[in-house]
Design a protein that fits this description.
binds magnesium ion; 10 helices; binds adenosine-5'-diphosphate; alpha+beta; about 325 residues; Dna Ligase, domain 1; D-amino Acid Aminotransferase, Chain A, domain 1; 16 strands; five-stranded mixed β-sheet; five-stranded antiparallel β-sheet
Length: about 325
């Protein structure tokens, strides 16, 4: 039986979601093939809690545990941490350095996609529609005239690296810009100002199955607030997730094709979710990539997996086998 470390927690606003994601993965993981150990990472505390209650620290030299005098090493790691350090390449870099296999995207794909501005530049160069945006570093003056000309109002101000809409503001006019900039810089030293795209929010999960890149389904996200902000994301009743989205086949095919192409071009691995906003004319604008999408029982990707006719446990096994190969 293979020993797998399921890593959860992390140091972002999505800490709680990561715990739920890991719980669901733990429930679904095939126990006949894998012995899974839940490892909790928070700041500098990397620990495993034994069934008898004893808390053991992870040895960072080789990501091993010593339980009752016996050393446990892992065949691989299942990464279930959203945001820092699971989704931005930092943990992946560490595992690369110690030679530990892990599920999902590698260091470069994770780091690149985690910075929304850099990711936009690459995706735009692939010919996928992306809203125009501006990029600023903390301490640099924001060019108000450029914002008006390139983005107009309303526009979105967001930290380049964040998640769960934390630090994201919809800016209705110039009087709201300064506060939005200050808010975004609370979370990151880089921000972007992006033109608003009006339309339907659609998201597509992609997986590599039997060596072939395949989109799972397109889901529509209907936010019951002005946009899909933190509150609407995590309050039931403030959003609806519709799988499959009730959209024309042409739009569905376009989103699936764009998502598969980006997955391929950015050398993604594992299950990855691509977010878009489609205009009423049917043009999908790429918004962002989630390399560690939520996997709670309520999350979009598990629903898309079921819709695609696959079992979660089967998919998790295939992610682990892809990592160990
Ligand atoms: N350019 C945009 N046009 C319209 N809505 C946007 C735009 N950018 C962000 N949003 C809204 O803000 C939400 C959060 O932005 P996003 O870039 O996905 O950041 P996060 O990584 O925090 O989810 C999106 O789900 C969407 O509702
Ligand atoms: Mg998002």
């Amino acid at each position: 039986m293979k020993k797998i470390a399921l890593v959860t927690g992390g140091d972002s606003g999505e800490y709680e979601i990561s715990l739920l994601t890991a719980e669901n993965i733990m429930n679904q993981i095939d126990k006949t093939k894998y012995e899974a150990f839940l490892i909790h990472l928070k700041n500098n505390n990397w620990t495993y809690t034994h069934t008898d209650g004893q808390v053991v620290e992870v040895d960072r030299k080789d990501f091993s545990l010593t339980l009752n005098g016996q050393k446990i090493t892992f065949d691989g790691v299942f990464v279930a941490i959203h945001g820092n350090p699971g989704e931005n390449g930092r943990l992946e870099g560490y595992f690369d350095m110690i030679g530990m296999p892990y599920t999902g995207c590698g260091t470069l794909s994770s780091a690149l996609t985690f910075n929304k501005y850099y990711c936009n530049v690459v995706v735009r160069a692939m010919g996928v529609p992306v809203a125009p945006s501006l990029h600023y570093f903390k301490g640099e003056p924001v060019d108000y005239q450029a914002v008006a000309e390139v983005c107009g109002y309303p526009c979105f101000v967001k930290p380049c690296e964040s998640g769960s809409s934390v630090g994201v503001t919809k800016v209705h006019d110039e009087t709201e810009l300064a506060a939005a900039i200050e808010e975004a810089f609370r979370y990151d030293s880089q921000l972007m100002v992006e033109k608003m795209i009006s339309g339907r929010e659609l998201t597509c999960g992609v997986i590599r199955h039997d060596g072939k890149i395949r989109s799972l389904a397109v889901t529509e996200i209907v936010a019951r607030r002005e946009f899909y902000d933190y509150k609407s994301k995590y309050t039931s009743g403030l959003h609806d997730l519709i799988t499959p989205a009730d959209i024309p086949d042409e739009l569905r095919n376009l989103i699936s094709r764009f998502s598969e192409n980006i997955y391929h071009e950015l050398a993604c691995k594992g299950v990855v979710r691509f977010d878009f906003i489609a205009t009423p004319e049917g043009t999908p604008y790429f918004l962002e990539v989630n390399t560690i999408p939520g996997q709670t029982s309520q999350s979009i990707v598990p629903n898309q997996i079921r819709f695609a006719g696959m079992e979660l446990s089967e998919v998790y096994s295939s992610l682990i086998e892809e990592a160990l190969r």
